[in-house]
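Suppose you are handed a protein chain with no further information: no name, no annotation, nothing but its sequence. What can you learn? This example shows the usual starting point.
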Amino acid sequence: MNIKHSVPANRSMLRRFVTVATLGAAMLGVVSASADGGGKGSGNFALTTIAGVGDGYTGKLDVKGDGKFSVKEEGGNLVFTSSVADGELNMKDGRQKHTVGDDSKLGLKKGQKVTLTVEKSKLTFPEAGKEASGSVPGKIKMLGKEQGVTVKYTVKEDGGKYVIKSASFEFDYTKHVADGKKVCLMLVCVRPSVTINITGGTIEVKK
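A reasonable first move is to predict its three-dimensional structure. Written in structure tokens, the prediction is:
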């Protein structure tokens, strides 16, 4: 009699354990999603600087690139990520391999990403159908090193989403490279100051 009932009892106990564990995991997932806010987004950006000879960059050459990024909300921050060394940054005028690739003068080789982190609470989100502009401190991380930047932006609310009408910031690439020096090819060097302009993007996030 005891043997006949022990198996169902054990199975019943196992079922209860599995049910409780499953509910616990589901609740943890909901709490985690609520904590991060579930924010997401994507967009495009343009990169510009110049190159030339000497401190005055004589014979100025425009250095331009186009890229794309994704956005994710993490711990109260919005993190903008671009997999620059895996096809998400395309340089103009044949400078691709010198910027990202096996011959990168910056060290941006396959697998390398660049991130921009902005504290969500410092952003101004507009009301429905309206625009808001401002500036916010952020941190750009490249090649394992960070530097502070100031991001100027204008966003518009559109159907529950925030459209980035414009956003820009500047950073110094020499603060990330191993030797801290300008990238040069023969006598022609690239100016350290690089401007990033977001040319289009949409963010889904709760205020």
